[in-house]
Amino acid sequence: MGAGAAAAVSLAAFAVCALLVVLAPPAEQRPAPAGADPAHYTSPEFAARPAAVELDLTDHPAYKLPVPDPVDCSLPELDPASGESWNGFNGALGDCLNRLWRPRLKELGLRTAEPDFRVSRNNPDPGGSLEKGMTLAYYEGGPNMTITVVLPNVTLLAANLPAAWQQEVWISLMAHEYGHHVQELAGILAVSYSLEREAETEQERLQTLRRTELQAECLAGVAMRGLANVGDAEIATVNRYLAGGADIDTHGTGGNRRAWFDDGAGRGTLAACNTYAAPKSRVS
Questions:
Q1: How large is the angle between the packed helices 202-226 and 3-22, nearest 10 degrees?
Q2: Which DSSP string corresponds to the chain?
Q3: Residue 187 phi, psi dihedral angles, 5° rounding
Q4: Which residue of 71, 154, 195, 284 shows the fewest CB atoms closer than 10 Å?
């Protein structure tokens, strides 16, 4: 997810929170007509706004869970230059990722809403490049919960990748964005965006953003390991062609991206993806 996309998501999440505050019911008791069930009416105690739940990103309950159990995943061959092909591919892969993550989300007592997948021909960062980095896909949280593939950029990258390994690279890309969806459902994105807004310096803001992005990279590694048809060779190749590469202020160094992806793919619990408790050197 590119920096511009991350900023857009942050504003969207803030707007949703503001809307919920405005629409909160007034704290007043309405009289129930004779014969009515009092349970349908609101008392002052129940109408009052509940206390905010503090979420510590360094000690999230998710870190105590094992990685998801593997799922079988049969996918159609993808033509990365075709929007129609992406729709079919993401429909099948989205089902696999939903089945993979749903049990762990339920263990946390979280809703298991499924994201929508879209394809866009609009480039959110026309100044991007293979050398400097560019937005291949991005996630929007809030009420949208949408993963969008940026067709012109994935087409450009596809032209520079060996054909034999492209399928696994695109699986990993979508697994990264689905990792943001897991963060959204777990409440991690909302807290992360708040920390970004409250940051006193640009460097502090970027470090928070990198922790979020590197965690999604780790969750992509978890997902790749959880797809039964993906083996060690495919995981290693994905890490070489997608997770590695140039250092990016918003997503971390190539070395750190590879390390977090490997941690997700190689360890047994989601504690492997606790980027928020990691030293600065691991999120640079």
A1: 100
A2: --HHHHHHHHHHHHHHHHHHHHTPPPS-PPPPPTT--GGGS--HHHHSPPPPPP--GGG-GGGGSBPPPPB--------TT-HHHHHHHHHHHHHHHHHHHHHHHHHTT---PPPEEEEE---S-TT-BTTTB--SEEEE-TTT-EEEEEHHHHHHHHTTS-GGGHHHHHHHHHHHHHHHHHHHHTTHHHHHHHHHHH-SSHHHHHHHHHHHHHHHHHHHHHHHHHBTT--HHHHHHHIIIIISSS-BTTTB-HHHHHHHHHHHHH-SBGGGG-GGGS-GGGG-
A3: 85, 5
A4: 284
Dist. CA 269–CA 64, nearest whole Å: 7
> Which among 191, 201, 183, 209 has a CA at the least distance from the CA of 283?
209
How distant is the alpha carbon of residue 100 from its chain centre?
Answer: 14
Q: For 96-109, how does the pLDDT look when each residue is reduced to its tens digit (9 = 90+)?
A: 999 999 999 999 99
Of 124, 126, 118, 178, give the one whose Cα is nearest residue 148.
Answer: 118
Q: pTM for this one?
A: 0.81
Query: Which tokens belong to 188?
Result: 């991690």
Cβ contact 167:77 at 8 Å: yes
- Tens digits of residue pLDDT in 223-251: 999 999 899 999 998 888 776 677 889 99
Q: Both tokens of residue 214? A: 């590197």
Q: What is the CA radius of gyration of the chain?
A: 20
φ, ψ (nearest 5 deg) of residue 44: -55, -35
Residue 122: other Cβ atoms inside 10 A: 9
In DSSP terms, which residues pair with 117 in a beta bridge? Answer: 147
Phi, psi of 282 (to 5 degrees): -90, -10
